[in-house]
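fyi for ur records
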Amino acid sequence: MTQDNESKDKSSGQPLPEGGPQANALLAAIVESSDDAIISKDLDGTIMSWNAAAERIFGYTPEEIIGHSILTLIPADLQDEEKTIIARLRNGERIEHFETTRVAKSGKLLSLSLTISPVRDASGKVVGASKIARDISERREFERRLVETEKIVATGRMAATIAHEINNPLEAVVNLIYLARLSPTVNDQVKEYLRLAEQEIERVSLIARQTLGYFRETAMPVDFPVSVLLEEVLTVYGAKLAYSGIDVHRDYHPSRPLTMRKGELTQLFSNLVANAIDAMPQGGDLSVSVEPEGESPAEGVNVLMADTGTGISPELLEKIFEPFFTTKEQRGTGIGLWLSRQFVEEHRGSIAVVSNTDAEDHGTTFRIFLPYENGLAQNVAPGGRGNA
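which gave:
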């Protein structure tokens, strides 16, 4: 074996492919131009190489970091992760799409997706690791905001429901006060008290009416393909699905765009995907299909989302659409499916669920029907028709 074949690329730390200086230069250029941080380390955790993206993401120059421990990049409370990673690498395992947190030179915490591969010497012995780190901070922030939005919308809708229930008896009280003021047996002082009471109740009624309308989605409906919307949601959750070992199977049949409040249906499908991930902690399959159904005027789009998760027992299944009911203990808010049903019903659709907890046949399937004629078409945003 020649010296060239035994040398290592300074950027990746891995044995270079055969092909001479030209191939080596090309490989080095690819590593340096990558948008992802590419780092190599030995089995003691000492950093051996550092590309340009690693400098951009973490803030350290190669001179500052090469030769230092990889623990420099790991928060103190997560440093036990490195022991687990090294143990798996020594066994020759490859770690893919491992989502975790690392720390930059500035002290900023970064959300990263790591793919770590063992590096072997000429005899096949594992001597180090090559790590590709992708910054997913923006996606994590998007997911965080999505959860916050869900909580805000849920709180608002609950307030709207309460306001609606309060408003009806308030109107009855106002009418009774009005009749009492007209009674000839009531003196002027009592009439003044009744007038003030009526005024205050009217004020409460106004607050209730404002609350009832405030939390309804104000965004204009748009015409949008359901399959494209589903694909956007699956893209957001793509890395999490991959890391969880979940294979996604798509079956999209042609269907015309649906007039929709896009934000509401995005939240609906996000809730279902997130629930499916939680139901399959050991991995599994998620099947998503879209197909047209029925004939005018009842025609619409059928969406099926089926997982091979643990399933939901019959006694819990009948409660899952109730507000604040959750099977996730401390991890769940109990409002996701409650909101989801509201979103579907506001599109004049329906949502149904079947589930099985048998050892040999388990999983949950949601079926959502969304009709084309849902009363939103007259309010479509200009330029929104047919957007993809």
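The domain at 140-214 is CATH 1.10.287 (Helix Hairpins). thats all i got for now
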